[in-house]
């Protein structure tokens, strides 16, 4: 993840202290920065998808290390705004589960695609993740802080995935390939479970 995104998140925490430290559930702050930042960590679907994006980017390497996560975050934010605006998007839950399955499989088979294709793939799935959470946000300043927190947490999860992917890659080709295959397959299976379990 780019340093500029991490700097922006750090600035948000520093310059919006009331929003950053508001306790979830307290009137007036339910949708503040802290709630938005914590929310991605409360759902296994979002964690799996975000870390998978980072792992996929790490596998591709080069410019994909930052372009793939940045594409996801950017499209997710735009889709969140669309969700806040009341635009209707069908099959959101299916799209979220499918993102976990597809990204898990891409990691498991160590899919090699051009960076532009990877950006397009993750951007497509970012639409569903962004819309789902944007539709829950109020169109207010607290909703804005929630959105900033959510974006920062997503960027952090991407960075964790990239870091994990780079660390695994340094373990030696035989070991790293097996770990990635198992992790990707487990992620894909989790996506299937999320899709079929109500």
Describe, in plain words, how this protein is organized in 3D:
The protein contains nine helices and no strands. The chain is an all-alpha fold and 198 residues long. The longest helix has 29 residues, at 141-169. The chain is globular, with a radius of gyration of 17 Å. The termini are far apart.
Report, as a whole number of angstroms, the end-to-end distance: 33 Å
SSE string, helix = H, strand = E? HHHHHHHHH
Number of strands: 0
- Form type: globular
Low-confidence stretches: 8-29
Oligomer: single chain
Q: Which radius of gyration do the C-alpha atoms yield?
A: 17 Å
Counting DSSP H or I runs of 4 or more residues, the number of helices is 9
For the residues shown, what is the average pLDDT?
A: 85
Number of domains: 1
What's the main sheet like? none
Structural class call reads mainly alpha
Q: What is the strand content?
A: under 5%
Helix content: over 70%
């Amino acid at each position: 993840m780019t340093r500029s995104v991490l700097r922006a998140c750090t600035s948000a925490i520093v310059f919006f202290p009331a929003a950053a430290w508001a306790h979830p559930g307290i009137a007036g702050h339910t949708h503040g920065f802290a709630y938005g930042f914590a929310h991605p960590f409360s759902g296994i679907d979002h964690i799996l998808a975000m870390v998978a994006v980072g792992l996929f980017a790490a596998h591709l390497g080069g410019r994909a290390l930052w372009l793939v996560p940045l594409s996801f975050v950017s499209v997710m934010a735009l889709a969140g705004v669309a969700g806040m605006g009341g635009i209707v998007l069908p099959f959101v839950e299916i799209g979220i589960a499918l993102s976990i399955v597809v990204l898990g499989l891409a990691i498991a088979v160590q899919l090699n695609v051009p960076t532009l294709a990877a950006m397009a793939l993750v951007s497509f799935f970012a639409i569903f993740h962004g819309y789902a959470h944007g539709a829950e946000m109020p169109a207010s300043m607290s909703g804005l802080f929630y959105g900033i927190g959510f974006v920062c947490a997503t960027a952090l999860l991407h960075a964790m995935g990239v870091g994990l992917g780079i660390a695994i890659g340094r373990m030696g080709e035989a070991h790293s390939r097996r770990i990635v295959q198992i992790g990707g397959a487990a992620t894909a299976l989790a996506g299937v479970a999320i899709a079929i379990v109500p």
